[in-house]
Fold:
Amino acid sequence: MNTFFLSVALGLCFLMLFSMYRTLFGPTVLDRLIGVNAIGSKTVILLLLIGFLYERIDMFVDIALAYAFLNFIAVLAASRYFHKRKGLYEESFMD
Structure:
């Protein structure tokens, strides 16, 4: 069963690379915010898988919930900031 959780965790880390690409090279700020949110969501699942691997799911559920809450608040704050600044849909400055 540990090999199953380990293989799922490695597959999830591989899928996080696609979100990392969208975060780094997204054409708009909104694409970057969505990429960061996707990475945060996958990190929560990764924390739960690590909890299953260490057989301490009770401790890792608390950490995952705290991380999910912080990720949610951070994305909300960033999107509100860029929305008020009217820079949410403009092209990036890195081009």
User: Anything to note?
Assistant: Residues 57-84 form the longest helix (28 residues). The two ends are 46 Å apart (CA to CA). The CA atoms of residues 40 and 71 lie 6 Å apart.
